[in-house]
Amino acid sequence: MPREPKVVDVEPVNRGGPVRRVFLLLLFGAVVAGLYVFYMRTRARGLRESADATAVRSTVTPAGDSLQVAVDWKLVIDSLRAIPESVRVEVGLSDGRMASVSTRSADQQSDTLRVAAPAPGQTATGYSCVAPIHRGQLRREQCTPWQFVRPAADTASATAPAPGTSPDSAGARRRTAAAGQPRVTRIVVQPSGLQVDPDVGGRCARWQRDNPGRSVWVEVNRRAVPECTGANGKPMVAQFCAFAELSDGRRIKTTNSARDRYCEQLYQEWIGERVS
């Protein structure tokens, strides 16, 4: 015989009503907010603990058709967790024509890169930048500007002495007019190129205006007064001396270098190269 169907009553489960749902939403929001605050604090602490590059200095020397730029720096590290994985070094010319980049390990504090040298009579204006790489991110870089001057010479600036006279003789130039002086075959400028620091803010120019009777030099082309010494420890001004080679084989000083002690020292070194 077929069974009679039974009706089963299902009593709905009470989920706590709207109050419980609001409570759960508030609890979820509090958890999310706590995680966000924890993330931001951890990120900020990581940024504060990053290493910073300081005391960036450049030493620029000629190397064939290039300039060799030796960059030195120091790292300021807040904690062991802030030690960077590596350091990025960039050296470039300020006109944007060229830049050289390298990556060094964090335990090194120097690197050497090359950029194009300026043509005679021109000045290369460049920069050196160092930035730590911390947790895969490039941190704030520290940059220092520099300049390299490559002088040019004009053969018309040389005056040759008459045969048998001293190059420093005051009457030599007058006597050579009638006797006929040898032809100037080459002008040599010493130094052939020199690094100078930019005069940021006109500090050195202002000192020279305020001290018209004083020399900026403590040691010519090596040390200057503090007001004329730049961020790389180099003078902001440079002195060059011009010498001439004559068609009869003699080597002389030009007029603007004849009575300068620094030029006399370079002149003696130059003529010494002939016999060495």
How would you describe the overall organization of this protein?
- This protein has 276 residues and is α+β, with helices and mostly antiparallel strands.
- It folds into two domains: 52-150, Immunoglobulins (Immunoglobulin-like), CATH 2.60.40; 155-275, no CATH class.
- It has four helices and 14 strands.
- The chain has helices at 17-48, 172-179, 203-210, 261-275, and strands at 52-63, 66-76, 86-93, 99-105, 110-116, 122-134, 137-138, 142-150, 184-190, 194-196, 217-219, 223-224, 241-246, 251-253.
- The strands form four sheets. Strands 3, 4, 6, 7, 8 and 10 form a six-stranded antiparallel beta sheet that branches. Strands 1-2-5 form a three-stranded antiparallel beta sheet, with no helix packed on it. A three-stranded antiparallel beta sheet has the order 9-13-14.
- A hairpin with a 5-residue loop joins strand 3 and strand 4 (99-105).
- The protein is elongated and about 145 Å long.
- 22% of the residues are buried.
- Residues 161-165 have low confidence and may be disordered.
Topology at a glance:
Layout: H1 17-48, E1 52-63, E2 66-76, E3 86-93, E4 99-105, E5 110-116, E6 122-134, E7 137-138, E8 142-150, H2 172-179, E9 184-190, E10 194-196, H3 203-210, E11 217-219, E12 223-224, E13 241-246, E14 251-253, H4 261-275
